[in-house]
């Protein structure tokens, strides 16, 4: 962690603590390589006024304990991924360990699958909208949002499909990627590369993913 990032973390934590209440725990997850965004999950004792704080390269998603439990019960990767793979930064470690235990106690069910499919569809529609907008105003932020939305659609859909067919406990994203069908894995790797490089929006990738979802019953 460089000094600048350390200041951003402290600033984000202080800001949220002042606005949202007591910080229960803060987790760092995702890539730690230089130049990458610094992703954090912050859990507070009261409902945040805003679910997201952006400070430079710091991306902090904020929630409260009750909302965290709800997302865990739905095996939503927005919280399961940081809890499974992230690193405890500060706060109450017992609250952090308790949340991790909740994750492992949840078993997939129809409500989980329905939630993940709905999130996949919403992300797909968001990617479609960014695709339309970028054709008129192609800027870096919109390109990034397009690839991120498409990536979210793919991951939510693959989680839903896995939990529906395998019916096993929670998976991390990396575990899920290793189990992807060959055709989906190929497209996933393309999308991740495009997102990292911030290249122009590619409607063909969006259409390819739509075709993959439609034909998924044949896999």
Report what the structure shows:
With 219 residues, the protein is an alpha+beta fold. The chain folds into two domains: 3-105, Beta Polymerase, domain 2, CATH 3.30.460; 110-218. It has helices spanning 3-20, 65-73, 77-85, 93-105, 110-134, 140-166, 173-178, 182-197, 203-214, and strands at residues 23-29, 38-44, 52-55, 58-64, 87-91. It is 62% helix and 14% strand. Helix 6 (140-166) packs antiparallel against helix 8 (182-197). The chain has a five-stranded mixed sheet with strand order 3-4-2-1-5, sandwiched between helices. It contains nine helices and five strands, in the order H-E-E-E-E-H-H-E-H-H-H-H-H-H.
Helix content: 55-70%
Taking the alpha carbons of the first and last residues, their distance comes to 42 Å
Query: What proportion of the residues form beta strands (DSSP E)?
Result: 5-15%
Class by helix and strand content?
Answer: alpha+beta
The main sheet comes to: 5 strands, mixed
Please state the CA-atom Rg, rounded to the nearest Å.
18 Å
Q: What number of domains?
A: 2
Poorly predicted ranges (pLDDT <50, ≥5 residues)?
none
- The general outline is globular
